[in-house]
Amino acid sequence: MSEEFHKPVKVPGFVFEGMQGGVDPAVTSRVAHETAHALLARVRADPDGETVERLIAYTDQHGIDAIAELWSRALPRTLPGVLWRIYLLRLMIRQDPTSSSFFFQRGTEVIDSIDPVVAGASMPTGPDEITVLADEILRGVYTGDFAVALERAAAFCRVSSAGCASVADDSEPTEPERATVLTTRASRLSHLATDLASGAKLWRSESLD
Questions:
Q1: Contact criterion met (CB below 8 Å) for 56 and 135
Q2: Which end of the chain is more exposed for a tag (fewer CB within 10 A), N or C?
Q3: Domain residue limits, the chain
Q4: Helix axis angle, 79-95 relative to 127-143, nearest 10°?
């Protein structure tokens, strides 16, 4: 998704220090981990409301390129990899809240688990409710139980994946191309859910590097 954004980026120095030198994979990895740990530790130690809201809205104002440059190459089950996926998930929801809420709502109707409750969206879930949920999850990363925020995001992805798969099944007889697209989306959401859930487990065991 990062190629869709080309706005100039004003980057807070304490967050994105040391971005240059990222050509070397070892340097890229080190910078990703250092910035992720520094950012999270600093904000969670003193969760000033204004700072948290700026971090939540950062990609709305500047695009996602700066965050992508920092964290998108990190392994999925690492702190920078998890943070990247949380921001990417929020971006996906906010870019198309109508579709996101539709697939989530469908998922709540077909999934046989407590994931809709874990995700915590207001029911029924429309575009406004799904946008609020995206912000709540990201806010929880900085101010709440980090593992719970990841578990909520994972649950959202599992429900949405089930919804996409259900709509794909309905579309197959008359719209096979749409069904293929939705099946791919369902698979990606399922993989994302697995990464986020694994991140939550690692965080609880103090092993999320």
A1: yes
A2: N
A3: 2-204
A4: 160
Q: How far apart are CA 163 and CA 28, in angstroms?
A: 36
**Element (DSSP H or E) covering residue 68:** helix 65-71
pTM assigned to the model: 0.86
Nearest 10 degrees: CA dihedral of 180, 183, 187, 189?
120
Report how far residue 64's alpha carbon sits from residue 25's, in angstroms, rounded to the nearest whole number.
Answer: 20
Grouping H, G, I as helix, E, B as strand and the rest as coil, residue 175 is: coil
What is d(CA 155, CA 63) in angstroms, rounded to the nearest whole number? 26
Residues 6+ apart with CB under 8 A from 41: none
| Look-up of token digits 């806010």 | 139
Encode pLDDT of 40-64 as tens digits.
999 999 888 899 999 999 998 888 8
Would you place residue 114 in the very low, low, confident or very high pLDDT band (cuts 50, 70, 90)? Answer: very high
Percent of the chain at pLDDT above 70?
Answer: 89
